[in-house]
Amino acid sequence: MLVEYQNGQVFDGTKFVKRNFAVQDGRFVEPTATPDQVVDLAGKFVTPGLMNAHTHVTMSADPTYWQHRPRTAVTETVLALDNLKAALSVGVTYVRDVGSTHDVDLDLMKLDRDDLPGLVGSGQALSMTGGHGSGKGQEPKNSGTLEVDGEAAARRGAREVLRKGAKNVKLMATGGVSTPGETPFDEQLSEAEMRAAVVEAHHKGYTAAAHAQGTAGIKNAVRAGVDSVEHAIYLDEEAVALMKQHHTTVVPTLVAPRAIYENPATLPAFMVEKAKLVAKAHLASTKQAVAAGVPVVMGTDAGTPFNTFDHWVLVELEMYRQAGMTPAQVLNSATSQAAKLLHLTDVTGQVKVGLDADFVVLAEDPLQDFFAYERQTAVYRRGKKLVDRLTGGDGNATVAN
User: Fold this and answer.
1) Are 323 and 382 in a shared domain?
2) Per residue in 63-91, is it b (16+ CB within 10 Å) or e — as a string?
3) Are residues 252 and 319 part of one domain?
4) Which of 175, 176, 243, 308 could form a disulfide with 182 if both were Cys (CB 3.0 to 4.6 A apart)?
5) How many angstroms separate the CA atoms of 374 and 321, rounded?
6) Into how many domains does the chain fold?
7) Span 74-100, average pLDDT
């Protein structure tokens, strides 16, 4: 069936423009004179589906979640499905997972279901022995990381996650906020170790992303050739210049520490204190990257404490305004720019003929308020309406004669 959507205001990358578009067999197609169905979107706003480039689908934002459940492939798959459905509820139609247990993200990616967001999976991240996310004392399958030491081991680790189907290699360049006994300034995987893994990812045509918070670790990751630096909390002028030189993207995840320090009651004191310490520098570094023209792609670190897959996406977008981005730049960070980073420009990211029909219909202009995505919206994935919170639906559909 060919469905034509008429009279809507469609985001074109800079502004909303009134135009018609059509969907057939899950993809955007050219409108014709004889559609099977017409949907009137007068007064509505249409954007591409949002993309969250930094998530952990097998993690729960509820810090007490695993106290009441066994940690198995089954329970983690159920959790992942719930997280993905939450993402859909605010218009997220694609996610990149950057560290999953039991390879749940890879299995869900291979299923490629139309009723869930699309997925770019990384499988296990690569970490030095005892490094960030290594799950000290856990069984290897229960850890979100694969421990590697030295260039040969890093190369082998990258090849292993790619063999399992990963389309991104995640690397731990520094310590972080949520792990006891380490700081964001700890240098972990070396530049040479990361470069060995990056070469393998690029050889397959896929990307590499580095968890990098401290300045030295960020520079190591950028020089190693990663496509994106995740978090990038402590930038300096040299780090920004390196990013410009290497065409590196920043995925800020500004809400990750914020969700922690705004909910201190049930979290370890060390975690709350570190989150408070990094917050100011984190926003300042993102401002510095934006001012220099470093590409920014939306990612939230969803699954970290209190950092849900729905509401905090919109908080992240609003925080980019504070970092100096225009509303259009913010929306692009979660659509076309994200598609570019994830190598999905021929799949999604725009309302454009030939791409998957992933789009959101809103009653309000999101460029005025990104929280419009959690109010009156309808969310489509490959042309299928999966969420409908629009008053009276998304227009009066009529079957063409």
Assistant:
1) no
2) beeeeeeebeeeebbebbbebbbbbbbbb
3) yes
4) 175
5) 18
6) 2
7) 97
